[in-house]
Design brief:
With 244 residues, the chain is mainly alpha-helical. 78% of the residues lie in helices and 0% in strands. It has 11 helices and no strands. Helix 8 runs antiparallel to helix 10.
Amino acid sequence: MVRATELTARSSERTFFTAMTASMALIVFAGFARTYYLRPLVPLSSLPGPLTPLIHAHGVVFTVWMLLLVLQARLVAKGNVRLHRRIGLFSISLAILLVGTGTATALHAVLRGVAPPGVDARQFLVVPLFALLVFGVLYTAALICRHRPQAHKRLMLLATIGLLPPALARWIVFYLGFGPPVVLALTTLFVVPLVIWDFRTRGRLHPATLWGGLFLVMSIPIRLAIAFTESWLAIADRAVALVR
């Protein structure tokens, strides 16, 4: 009886984390469908500027990351932990590429003036750059905790949630007309299922959920606080000057 209960709990856990990763992949696809994934089907006159090699490189790396996340969750769900760990080594190089191409793409977007109406592109730069920063910190924490599965999987999930603002912004800012604060606030909602899961299965928050979630959530007001300051604009100017 106890064994059956344990198997049911493990199955539910694997289903939950697989569903979370798959839902995030779908959100990324939906966010970039019009401007990237389904771009050939969209009238050219309604699209932003042409896709540069850098944008393609970042798009490919970002797509592979999301697919890898889903694959890794499925491998664990199927009990193939050995292959999961081998592929995990590849994720280190992929994460570095993701941060590198993402940063360069964000800086070049400022040069092209990509930003919501009424928002300085340098101010909007805080959205993608902080998304990458949060991802980098949480991913590094996940690597450190790779031998602690419960912490590792939660930190990997939170790290990828940190990448969602640019995808959400494509709908919420550019199509629905809401500002970056709404994008960032909605991003934090993706932490809620993990919080609920912890309370349902553990009766309390896992430390990785608590501290990783707090780091992600608390980064939101920090971004909004600095985005409109002269100091941030000066930093943005210097960063953009590196890719001119």
